[in-house]
# Entry
Amino acid sequence: MNATSQPHRGSRVRIAAGLTGVLMLAASCASTPPAPTASLQAAQLAISNAERTDASRYAPGELGEARTKLASADTAVKEQRMIMAERFAEESRAEAELASARTAAVKAKAVNDEMTRSTDTLVEEMQRGSGDKP
Amino acid sequence: MNTVNDSGVNLCRTLIATAVASVLLAACAAAPLKPDGAAEARNKLMQLQSDPNLAGRAPLAIKEADAAVRTAEQPQADQELAAYRVYLADRKIDTARAQAETRLAEDQRAALSAQRESARLDARTHEADTARSQVATARAEGAQQKLAADQARSESDAAYLAAANSEQQATELQRQIEELQARVTDRGLVLTLGDVLFESGRADLKTGTAGNLNKLVFFLNKHPDRSVAIEGYTDSVGSEDYNQALSQRRADSVRSYLVRQGIGSGRLTASGMGMIDPVAGNDSAAGRQQNRRVEVIVSNPPAASR
# Structure
Protein backbone atom coordinates (compact mmCIF):
# COMPACT_ATOMS: atom_id res chain seq x y z
CA MET A 1 0.00 0.00 0.00
CA ASN A 2 2.76 2.32 1.00
CA ALA A 3 4.74 1.72 -2.19
CA THR A 4 1.76 2.31 -4.46
CA SER A 5 0.62 5.52 -2.63
CA GLN A 6 4.08 7.28 -2.60
CA PRO A 7 4.29 8.49 -6.23
CA HIS A 8 0.68 9.74 -6.07
CA ARG A 9 1.34 11.98 -3.08
CA GLY A 10 4.47 13.50 -4.61
CA SER A 11 2.72 14.57 -7.81
CA ARG A 12 -0.12 16.16 -5.80
CA VAL A 13 2.32 18.25 -3.76
CA ARG A 14 3.98 19.45 -6.94
CA ILE A 15 0.69 20.39 -8.51
CA ALA A 16 -0.37 22.26 -5.37
CA ALA A 17 2.91 24.16 -5.25
CA GLY A 18 2.60 25.06 -8.89
CA LEU A 19 -0.93 26.26 -8.48
CA THR A 20 0.02 28.32 -5.45
CA GLY A 21 2.85 29.90 -7.41
CA VAL A 22 0.58 30.80 -10.29
CA LEU A 23 -2.01 32.22 -7.90
CA MET A 24 0.58 34.28 -6.11
CA LEU A 25 1.93 35.65 -9.37
CA ALA A 26 -1.56 36.48 -10.51
CA ALA A 27 -2.32 38.20 -7.24
CA SER A 28 0.84 40.28 -7.38
CA CYS A 29 0.10 41.20 -10.96
CA ALA A 30 -3.39 42.35 -10.02
CA SER A 31 -2.19 44.86 -7.33
CA THR A 32 0.77 46.19 -9.26
CA PRO A 33 0.12 50.01 -8.77
CA PRO A 34 3.42 51.12 -7.18
CA ALA A 35 3.70 53.07 -3.96
CA PRO A 36 3.24 56.85 -4.57
CA THR A 37 6.86 57.48 -3.65
CA ALA A 38 7.05 60.96 -5.18
CA SER A 39 3.94 62.16 -3.36
CA LEU A 40 5.12 60.65 -0.09
CA GLN A 41 8.51 62.29 -0.43
CA ALA A 42 6.91 65.64 -1.35
CA ALA A 43 4.67 65.42 1.72
CA GLN A 44 7.63 64.57 3.95
CA LEU A 45 9.60 67.49 2.50
CA ALA A 46 6.69 69.90 3.00
CA ILE A 47 6.35 68.78 6.63
CA SER A 48 10.09 69.23 7.20
CA ASN A 49 9.92 72.73 5.70
CA ALA A 50 6.98 73.62 7.91
CA GLU A 51 8.81 72.31 10.98
CA ARG A 52 11.84 74.39 10.06
CA THR A 53 9.71 77.58 10.03
CA ASP A 54 8.50 76.77 13.54
CA ALA A 55 5.01 75.79 12.35
CA SER A 56 4.60 73.57 15.43
CA ARG A 57 4.30 76.83 17.32
CA TYR A 58 2.41 79.06 14.90
CA ALA A 59 0.23 76.51 13.02
CA PRO A 60 0.17 73.40 15.19
CA GLY A 61 -3.26 72.27 13.93
CA GLU A 62 -2.26 72.26 10.28
CA LEU A 63 1.10 70.63 10.98
CA GLY A 64 -0.51 67.92 13.10
CA GLU A 65 -3.04 67.25 10.36
CA ALA A 66 -0.22 66.98 7.80
CA ARG A 67 1.56 64.43 9.97
CA THR A 68 -1.63 62.45 10.49
CA LYS A 69 -2.28 62.42 6.76
CA LEU A 70 1.25 61.24 6.05
CA ALA A 71 0.87 58.46 8.62
CA SER A 72 -2.38 57.46 6.93
CA ALA A 73 -0.60 57.42 3.60
CA ASP A 74 2.10 55.11 5.01
CA THR A 75 -0.56 52.84 6.43
CA ALA A 76 -2.33 52.78 3.07
CA VAL A 77 0.93 51.82 1.36
CA LYS A 78 1.32 48.90 3.76
CA GLU A 79 -2.22 47.93 3.04
CA GLN A 80 -1.45 48.13 -0.67
CA ARG A 81 -4.12 50.77 -1.14
CA MET A 82 -1.89 52.90 -3.29
CA ILE A 83 -4.54 55.28 -4.63
CA MET A 84 -5.61 56.09 -1.09
CA ALA A 85 -1.94 56.41 -0.14
CA GLU A 86 -1.33 58.94 -2.89
CA ARG A 87 -4.39 61.00 -1.94
CA PHE A 88 -3.36 60.99 1.73
CA ALA A 89 0.14 62.00 0.71
CA GLU A 90 -1.15 64.88 -1.45
CA GLU A 91 -3.48 66.01 1.32
CA SER A 92 -0.58 65.86 3.77
CA ARG A 93 1.54 68.01 1.48
CA ALA A 94 -1.26 70.57 0.99
CA GLU A 95 -1.78 70.69 4.77
CA ALA A 96 1.95 71.11 5.44
CA GLU A 97 2.21 73.89 2.86
CA LEU A 98 -0.75 75.60 4.49
CA ALA A 99 1.00 75.26 7.86
CA SER A 100 4.06 77.00 6.41
CA ALA A 101 2.00 79.75 4.79
CA ARG A 102 0.03 80.42 7.97
CA THR A 103 3.20 80.45 10.05
CA ALA A 104 4.71 83.03 7.73
CA ALA A 105 1.53 85.14 7.90
CA VAL A 106 1.39 85.03 11.71
CA LYS A 107 5.06 85.97 11.95
CA ALA A 108 4.66 88.83 9.47
CA LYS A 109 1.68 90.18 11.37
CA ALA A 110 3.52 89.83 14.67
CA VAL A 111 6.34 91.96 13.31
CA ASN A 112 3.85 94.61 12.18
CA ASP A 113 2.03 94.50 15.50
CA GLU A 114 5.31 95.00 17.30
CA MET A 115 6.14 97.97 15.11
CA THR A 116 2.72 99.48 15.68
CA ARG A 117 3.02 98.91 19.41
CA SER A 118 6.40 100.55 19.64
CA THR A 119 5.11 103.52 17.63
CA ASP A 120 2.10 103.79 19.93
CA THR A 121 4.39 103.58 22.93
CA LEU A 122 6.51 106.40 21.61
CA VAL A 123 3.48 108.57 20.98
CA GLU A 124 2.04 107.69 24.39
CA GLU A 125 5.28 108.43 26.19
CA MET A 126 5.57 111.72 24.41
CA GLN A 127 2.02 112.69 25.31
CA ARG A 128 2.52 111.62 28.90
CA GLY A 129 5.79 113.51 28.95
CA SER A 130 4.14 116.67 27.70
CA GLY A 131 1.25 116.17 30.12
CA ASP A 132 3.58 115.98 33.12
CA LYS A 133 5.62 118.97 32.23
CA PRO A 134 4.19 122.24 33.40
CA MET B 1 -63.33 60.34 -37.40
CA ASN B 2 -60.36 58.43 -38.67
CA THR B 3 -58.42 61.48 -39.22
CA VAL B 4 -59.47 62.67 -35.84
CA ASN B 5 -58.36 59.37 -34.34
CA ASP B 6 -55.08 59.55 -36.22
CA SER B 7 -54.39 62.98 -35.01
CA GLY B 8 -55.34 61.90 -31.50
CA VAL B 9 -52.84 59.06 -31.66
CA ASN B 10 -50.20 61.43 -33.02
CA LEU B 11 -50.82 63.86 -30.19
CA CYS B 12 -50.50 61.05 -27.70
CA ARG B 13 -47.20 59.98 -29.19
CA THR B 14 -45.89 63.51 -29.12
CA LEU B 15 -46.94 63.90 -25.51
CA ILE B 16 -45.31 60.63 -24.54
CA ALA B 17 -42.12 61.56 -26.37
CA THR B 18 -42.05 64.95 -24.71
CA ALA B 19 -42.64 63.42 -21.32
CA VAL B 20 -39.88 60.91 -21.82
CA ALA B 21 -37.53 63.65 -23.01
CA SER B 22 -38.32 65.88 -20.07
CA VAL B 23 -37.90 63.00 -17.66
CA LEU B 24 -34.52 62.33 -19.20
CA LEU B 25 -33.64 66.05 -19.01
CA ALA B 26 -34.82 66.20 -15.45
CA ALA B 27 -32.70 63.21 -14.68
CA CYS B 28 -29.76 64.99 -16.26
CA ALA B 29 -30.45 68.19 -14.27
CA ALA B 30 -30.92 66.27 -11.08
CA ALA B 31 -27.58 64.54 -11.59
CA PRO B 32 -25.00 66.49 -9.43
CA LEU B 33 -23.23 68.89 -11.80
CA LYS B 34 -20.65 69.72 -9.15
CA PRO B 35 -19.45 67.63 -6.19
CA ASP B 36 -20.39 68.62 -2.64
CA GLY B 37 -18.24 71.42 -1.29
CA ALA B 38 -17.02 72.57 -4.69
CA ALA B 39 -19.40 75.55 -4.66
CA GLU B 40 -18.20 76.53 -1.19
CA ALA B 41 -14.60 76.29 -2.38
CA ARG B 42 -15.39 78.49 -5.40
CA ASN B 43 -17.11 81.01 -3.15
CA LYS B 44 -14.14 81.07 -0.80
CA LEU B 45 -11.76 81.59 -3.70
CA MET B 46 -13.90 84.41 -5.07
CA GLN B 47 -13.79 86.17 -1.73
CA LEU B 48 -10.03 86.05 -1.84
CA GLN B 49 -9.94 87.20 -5.47
CA SER B 50 -12.28 90.13 -4.79
CA ASP B 51 -10.25 91.38 -1.81
CA PRO B 52 -8.35 94.36 -3.21
CA ASN B 53 -5.71 94.07 -0.50
CA LEU B 54 -5.00 90.39 -1.15
CA ALA B 55 -6.01 89.49 -4.73
CA GLY B 56 -2.84 90.75 -6.35
CA ARG B 57 -0.46 89.69 -3.61
CA ALA B 58 -0.22 85.91 -4.22
CA PRO B 59 -0.88 85.50 -7.95
CA LEU B 60 0.78 82.12 -8.34
CA ALA B 61 -0.88 80.54 -5.32
CA ILE B 62 -4.26 81.95 -6.35
CA LYS B 63 -3.79 80.52 -9.84
CA GLU B 64 -3.01 77.11 -8.36
CA ALA B 65 -6.02 77.34 -6.09
CA ASP B 66 -8.20 78.31 -9.02
CA ALA B 67 -7.01 75.25 -10.95
CA ALA B 68 -7.67 73.07 -7.94
CA VAL B 69 -11.18 74.50 -7.57
CA ARG B 70 -11.86 73.87 -11.27
CA THR B 71 -10.75 70.28 -10.86
CA ALA B 72 -12.96 69.94 -7.79
CA GLU B 73 -15.90 71.34 -9.73
CA GLN B 74 -15.74 68.58 -12.35
CA PRO B 75 -18.67 66.17 -11.97
CA GLN B 76 -17.39 63.07 -10.30
CA ALA B 77 -19.21 59.84 -9.61
CA ASP B 78 -16.43 58.70 -7.24
CA GLN B 79 -17.44 60.43 -4.01
CA GLU B 80 -14.08 59.83 -2.36
CA LEU B 81 -12.20 61.33 -5.30
CA ALA B 82 -14.58 64.31 -5.34
CA ALA B 83 -14.08 64.90 -1.61
CA TYR B 84 -10.32 64.56 -2.05
CA ARG B 85 -10.32 67.22 -4.79
CA VAL B 86 -12.47 69.59 -2.74
CA TYR B 87 -10.13 69.08 0.22
CA LEU B 88 -7.08 69.95 -1.86
CA ALA B 89 -8.82 73.01 -3.39
CA ASP B 90 -9.82 74.23 0.06
CA ARG B 91 -6.29 73.94 1.43
CA LYS B 92 -4.79 75.63 -1.60
CA ILE B 93 -7.19 78.57 -1.22
CA ASP B 94 -6.23 78.88 2.46
CA THR B 95 -2.56 78.71 1.53
CA ALA B 96 -3.00 81.40 -1.14
CA ARG B 97 -4.80 83.64 1.36
CA ALA B 98 -2.08 83.16 3.98
CA GLN B 99 0.61 83.99 1.43
CA ALA B 100 -1.26 87.11 0.33
CA GLU B 101 -1.67 88.16 3.96
CA THR B 102 2.05 87.67 4.53
CA ARG B 103 2.84 89.80 1.53
CA LEU B 104 0.36 92.46 2.64
CA ALA B 105 1.97 92.63 6.06
CA GLU B 106 5.38 92.95 4.45
CA ASP B 107 4.12 95.72 2.18
CA GLN B 108 2.59 97.58 5.12
CA ARG B 109 5.88 97.45 6.94
CA ALA B 110 7.37 100.35 5.02
CA ALA B 111 4.48 102.58 6.08
CA LEU B 112 4.72 101.35 9.67
CA SER B 113 8.42 101.97 9.65
CA ALA B 114 7.83 105.49 8.36
CA GLN B 115 5.24 106.05 11.09
CA ARG B 116 7.63 104.83 13.73
CA GLU B 117 10.41 107.03 12.42
CA SER B 118 8.04 109.95 12.43
CA ALA B 119 7.00 109.22 16.00
CA ARG B 120 10.62 108.78 17.01
CA LEU B 121 11.48 112.08 15.39
CA ASP B 122 8.55 113.73 17.14
CA ALA B 123 9.71 112.26 20.42
CA ARG B 124 13.24 113.51 19.87
CA THR B 125 11.97 116.92 18.84
CA HIS B 126 9.76 116.95 21.88
CA GLU B 127 12.68 115.92 24.08
CA ALA B 128 14.80 118.64 22.59
CA ASP B 129 11.98 121.14 23.05
CA THR B 130 11.53 120.07 26.65
CA ALA B 131 15.24 120.33 27.26
CA ARG B 132 15.27 123.68 25.53
CA SER B 133 12.35 124.94 27.56
CA GLN B 134 14.01 123.63 30.70
CA VAL B 135 17.14 125.47 29.72
CA ALA B 136 15.02 128.53 28.97
CA THR B 137 13.31 128.19 32.35
CA ALA B 138 16.65 127.76 34.04
CA ARG B 139 17.94 130.70 32.09
CA ALA B 140 14.90 132.74 33.05
CA GLU B 141 15.45 131.75 36.66
CA GLY B 142 19.08 132.61 36.25
CA ALA B 143 18.09 135.91 34.72
CA GLN B 144 15.76 136.53 37.63
CA GLN B 145 18.49 135.70 40.08
CA LYS B 146 20.84 137.89 38.14
CA LEU B 147 18.24 140.62 38.24
CA ALA B 148 17.92 140.19 41.98
CA ALA B 149 21.68 140.16 42.27
CA ASP B 150 21.87 143.23 40.09
CA GLN B 151 19.27 144.89 42.23
CA ALA B 152 21.14 143.95 45.36
CA ARG B 153 24.32 145.15 43.74
CA SER B 154 22.72 148.38 42.66
CA GLU B 155 21.37 148.82 46.15
CA SER B 156 24.76 148.16 47.60
CA ASP B 157 26.13 150.42 44.92
CA ALA B 158 23.71 153.05 46.02
CA ALA B 159 24.78 152.51 49.57
CA TYR B 160 28.37 152.59 48.47
CA LEU B 161 27.64 155.65 46.43
CA ALA B 162 25.90 157.23 49.34
CA ALA B 163 28.81 156.32 51.52
CA ALA B 164 31.18 157.56 48.91
CA ASN B 165 29.03 160.61 48.53
CA SER B 166 29.02 161.37 52.16
CA GLU B 167 32.70 160.59 52.21
CA GLN B 168 33.18 162.86 49.25
CA GLN B 169 31.03 165.46 50.91
CA ALA B 170 33.07 165.16 54.06
CA THR B 171 36.23 165.50 52.01
CA GLU B 172 34.73 168.46 50.22
CA LEU B 173 33.69 170.01 53.52
CA GLN B 174 37.16 169.42 54.83
CA ARG B 175 38.58 171.13 51.79
CA GLN B 176 36.12 174.00 52.09
CA ILE B 177 36.88 174.40 55.78
CA GLU B 178 40.57 174.46 54.97
CA GLU B 179 39.77 177.00 52.28
CA LEU B 180 37.96 179.11 54.85
CA GLN B 181 40.89 178.70 57.22
CA ALA B 182 38.28 177.90 59.82
CA ARG B 183 38.85 176.07 63.08
CA VAL B 184 36.64 173.16 63.95
CA THR B 185 35.34 173.63 67.49
CA ASP B 186 32.48 172.25 69.55
CA ARG B 187 30.37 175.24 68.60
CA GLY B 188 31.01 174.65 64.95
CA LEU B 189 33.38 176.07 62.41
CA VAL B 190 34.97 179.21 63.71
CA LEU B 191 36.24 181.63 61.11
CA THR B 192 38.25 184.54 62.33
CA LEU B 193 38.11 187.61 60.19
CA GLY B 194 41.15 189.64 61.09
CA ASP B 195 41.19 193.34 61.76
CA VAL B 196 42.70 193.82 58.35
CA LEU B 197 39.09 194.00 57.18
CA PHE B 198 38.49 197.11 59.22
CA GLU B 199 40.14 200.51 59.58
CA SER B 200 40.94 201.33 63.17
CA GLY B 201 37.86 202.72 64.89
CA ARG B 202 35.67 202.05 61.85
CA ALA B 203 33.11 199.36 61.04
CA ASP B 204 33.15 199.47 57.25
CA LEU B 205 34.71 196.60 55.47
CA LYS B 206 37.80 197.50 53.60
CA THR B 207 37.15 197.47 49.88
CA GLY B 208 38.94 194.69 48.05
CA THR B 209 39.32 192.58 51.15
CA ALA B 210 36.05 190.76 50.80
CA GLY B 211 37.81 187.73 49.30
CA ASN B 212 37.76 185.78 52.55
CA LEU B 213 34.10 186.68 53.11
CA ASN B 214 33.21 185.51 49.61
CA LYS B 215 34.57 182.07 50.47
CA LEU B 216 32.22 182.11 53.45
CA VAL B 217 29.29 183.05 51.18
CA PHE B 218 30.17 180.19 48.86
CA PHE B 219 30.35 177.81 51.81
CA LEU B 220 27.03 179.00 53.24
CA ASN B 221 25.39 178.63 49.86
CA LYS B 222 26.62 175.06 49.74
CA HIS B 223 25.33 174.32 53.21
CA PRO B 224 21.98 176.03 53.53
CA ASP B 225 21.15 174.06 56.67
CA ARG B 226 23.84 175.80 58.66
CA SER B 227 23.20 179.01 60.54
CA VAL B 228 25.82 181.59 61.30
CA ALA B 229 26.63 183.56 64.44
CA ILE B 230 28.69 186.66 63.82
CA GLU B 231 30.55 187.99 66.85
CA GLY B 232 32.53 191.23 66.96
CA TYR B 233 35.52 191.71 69.27
CA THR B 234 37.72 194.72 70.06
CA ASP B 235 40.92 195.47 71.89
CA SER B 236 40.95 197.16 75.21
CA VAL B 237 41.60 200.63 73.83
CA GLY B 238 38.74 202.92 74.63
CA SER B 239 35.71 202.56 76.85
CA GLU B 240 33.79 199.38 77.27
CA ASP B 241 30.62 200.87 75.85
CA TYR B 242 32.48 202.20 72.90
CA ASN B 243 34.14 198.90 72.21
CA GLN B 244 30.84 197.10 72.71
CA ALA B 245 29.11 199.36 70.20
CA LEU B 246 32.04 199.16 67.83
CA SER B 247 32.11 195.36 67.97
CA GLN B 248 28.37 195.29 67.32
CA ARG B 249 28.67 197.58 64.35
CA ARG B 250 31.47 195.49 62.91
CA ALA B 251 29.43 192.32 63.37
CA ASP B 252 26.44 194.03 61.79
CA SER B 253 28.62 195.16 58.94
CA VAL B 254 29.65 191.57 58.17
CA ARG B 255 26.08 190.43 58.55
CA SER B 256 24.70 193.01 56.10
CA TYR B 257 27.43 192.09 53.64
CA LEU B 258 26.39 188.45 53.81
CA VAL B 259 22.74 189.41 53.39
CA ARG B 260 23.69 191.47 50.37
CA GLN B 261 25.39 188.36 48.96
CA GLY B 262 22.09 186.45 49.20
CA ILE B 263 22.39 184.66 52.51
CA GLY B 264 19.01 184.54 54.26
CA SER B 265 18.98 187.02 57.19
CA GLY B 266 17.17 184.41 59.28
CA ARG B 267 20.31 182.27 59.28
CA LEU B 268 22.48 185.15 60.50
CA THR B 269 22.83 186.56 64.01
CA ALA B 270 25.23 189.40 64.78
CA SER B 271 26.36 190.33 68.23
CA GLY B 272 29.00 192.71 69.70
CA MET B 273 31.14 191.08 72.33
CA GLY B 274 33.24 194.15 73.19
CA MET B 275 36.66 193.73 74.66
CA ILE B 276 36.05 190.36 76.32
CA ASP B 277 37.75 187.16 75.30
CA PRO B 278 40.95 188.57 73.95
CA VAL B 279 42.98 186.09 71.96
CA ALA B 280 46.19 187.94 72.65
CA GLY B 281 47.64 190.48 75.13
CA ASN B 282 46.43 194.04 74.79
CA ASP B 283 49.76 195.31 75.96
CA SER B 284 51.33 195.23 72.52
CA ALA B 285 50.22 196.57 69.20
CA ALA B 286 50.42 193.09 67.65
CA GLY B 287 48.32 191.65 70.49
CA ARG B 288 45.73 194.35 70.20
CA GLN B 289 45.57 193.84 66.44
CA GLN B 290 44.81 190.13 67.03
CA ASN B 291 42.08 191.03 69.49
CA ARG B 292 40.31 193.31 67.00
CA ARG B 293 38.43 190.72 65.07
CA VAL B 294 35.07 189.29 63.97
CA GLU B 295 34.50 185.65 64.53
CA VAL B 296 32.03 183.85 62.35
CA ILE B 297 30.75 180.66 63.91
CA VAL B 298 29.17 178.34 61.41
CA SER B 299 26.95 175.92 63.31
CA ASN B 300 27.17 172.21 62.71
CA PRO B 301 24.27 170.91 60.62
CA PRO B 302 21.21 169.79 62.67
CA ALA B 303 21.28 166.24 61.21
CA ALA B 304 25.04 165.96 61.30
CA SER B 305 24.81 163.16 63.81
CA ARG B 306 23.29 160.82 61.19
